[in-house]
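Q: Start with the shorter request: fold the first protein.
A: Done. Sequence, then structure:
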Amino acid sequence: YLVVEFQNNVDSSLKLVEYVPEAWMIGLTQCLWPSVSKSKLESLRTRASTPEETWERHPVVVLSRCSDELCARRRLSRYIKDGEIESTDLDKRRRRSKTKRFIEEGNRQRKKRVESSSDNEPDSEENSPKRANLNSGLRDPPSFPCISGSTFASPSVLASASAPASASASAPVSASASVSASASVSASASTPCTLTHELSKERVPTSFSTLREEIEASEVYSQLDSSQNSEPVNTPVGSQRCTSRCSEVRMELSSFERRVLRELATIRTIVDGVARQLTETLTPRLAAEDLPFSIPVNGDAGIDQLNAWLQKKENLVKLAQQLSRLGGRTSREATRQLLRRLFDPDALAKFTFKGTKDKRRFEESAVHSLVQLALKNSNLNVTEAQVNSDIKHVLLHALDPTRKHKAKENE
């Protein structure tokens, strides 16, 4: 959108300032203006409608350039009130263009020095691969990828402006009417800077469920983290302009973005653990009097008693529901916690998965069905073969806690 001043050929002292969409401009000196009612004019400006052949053409002078209609309204109000507008985007563009030309000139001179030194000293440090990579990084200015859905503050995204002063029905809306118009205009899509500002203003969620929902929403970013490259995206010319170099660059996540994704994954893991503990606390547990034994069991008598008690399907289902809340980030970790909750190390060491002459066979025991059912009820997506593999690993390392304890005592 552009804030423009209409040039009145009849009375030069009469200044009419309005804001118009960029699509209504013909270069930077003329503007097309519709002969419509006030409400229709507001609708056309908000939607940045394409000009029609019946619209009038007026000479104008550009005063300011804005990124959205709300910004254009504010600058128009400031101009009507104070008679001037702060440093415009056009001036900032000129300063940036001068700086860019200076940098490009320096890069060209640096490139010439590198090429001349490479001809004279082929084995010098200047021609080393490390130095060459550094020079290439300095020569090429950084190019940013075109990200779908985001609109950066560019010359093509201008602020709306309404316009000319003629005695006919096409006369522009008065300044007070323009300022008092509703400001509920859809702003342009968030840029990286505005996104940071919006995040800083977000309130902290007051409920645990809201926090978990927001953390789960970060799963889409973990999918972005797993993708190495992304296809370049074509965007409308009117909303975004990219150089040919920018459109060819594939989007890659920076180190900072990858670090943010790792932090979000860590936060989500912590929240899942807290949710699991909270659910376990609020869910009624199996009463102690319902168990004819204490867990973890120890000795052959305790193992036989547990297997006999699990022969009833009702007991098996109740205990499996309780053990499914023990948690674990992986299937192996959940299996280890579950078996160590049921057996002490010495009792667990009496089992092997297939069984031997001296040890019990875990595969045909009721505890095996209990473990399979408990992991099936958990939030882990595991298969029966994977659970069997984890059980074998845990049984093989059943005495590890005892060995570690003895090692600490010997120290």
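Q: Next, the second protein, separately.
A: Sequence, then structure:
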Amino acid sequence: MTVNSKATTISHDIFQSQKTITTPENRTLTTQYDPNTLLTERVSIPGLYDMSYGYDTRGRLSSVNTNTRMTEFTYNAQGFLESITDPEDHTATYDYDPVGRVTGVNRPDGSTVGFTYDRNGNMTVLTNPSTVSHGFGYNRVNLNSSYQTPISGGYQYVYDKDRRLIQTIFPSGAQINNLYDKTRLTRIQTPEGNIDYTYLCGTKVGSITKGTNTITYGYDGSLVTSETLSGALNQTLSYSYNSDFKLAGFSYAGSSENYTYDKDGLLTGAGSFTITRNIQNGLPESVTDNALNLSRSFNGYGEIDSQDFTISSSLTSWDLTRDNAGRITAKTETVDGITSNYIYTYDPMGRRLTATKDGALVEDYSYDLAGTRTHEINTLRGISRSLAYSDEDHLITAGTVTYQYDYDGFLARKTDGSDITEYDYSS
């Protein structure tokens, strides 16, 4: 297949049960499959570890293996997914009702998320690991018509006969109304005022107006070529594209930036910056301009394992070690010639537990069953505090700082000693 003189080829070796895609930059992706079932067995990209796939006797995916990282899947007697075990040997299991709907997710930390359904299969209750429930209601055509929060109250959603959302009612009683012509949204009515939409051909938005402020759009076919702002700000943003319809230029307020790409469509230049990519797989290995140089290396999983940032001389660099889940477990960082070593630990849900710097504990965290952080120690920032939350997971206290929320669940006030910050919101 050739597009704009750039050829992508797909070769199929039936005897080797192998397919290879070769990009215009001569990068390859090779797939090995089982000739009997046609199921993919291995995917290979040069410079990265191969990914191999295992299946059970019924052709269901049972494992994904990349070098030392393996994710495993099991199924129950009814054929539904029963468990997933990640590369760190953490397992999540799934419970089902008689018709195959998930009723519970049993997570690696021992907590459970529960689900309840109506007769049409709509989820009506979600119960989090702290046994706090969120309720959902539906109309006769199974559109979400209500949401009952644990504390703040209920949201209501109203639809027209074409099943378009026409009204949202907040717990406080505030409303947002949507108005339509035969097919398109023309106005949103909010307590603060209206937002009006005009259209060009079909469903292309021509302008959006709120009060005295308007954004007008220009197009070349389906591509946006300009955004003209009038009102509080009077400026035009202009966009140009290359023959592959990728953004080639952007201008605003007398300044402009240009963008370049390789034959595979990967970004290689942005303004004064040049991006150099790995010849085999396209990963970005360096970013440079006249002064700055950012260089990176990647491991076989495609994850960054080192970075060096220089302006004439090295400013900062680091090397990373990861566990089988891809999380950073160790970092050696050099800043202005001073080297520090960090070690990180995580709980079974992947949440940060501790961090040490040169052997000394500098971060320590605790979490509740819902996953919200309940205690934090950060010696580098001078922080040691407990945190408390509402049943809606709103932060209520963080040390001596308290937070209050309005009827709709939005943060309304923050109190820090004698300092009070109040917040107002638009709809």
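Q: Describe the second briefly.
A: The CA atoms of residues 71 and 86 lie 5 Å apart. The first strand starts at residue 2 and ends at 3.
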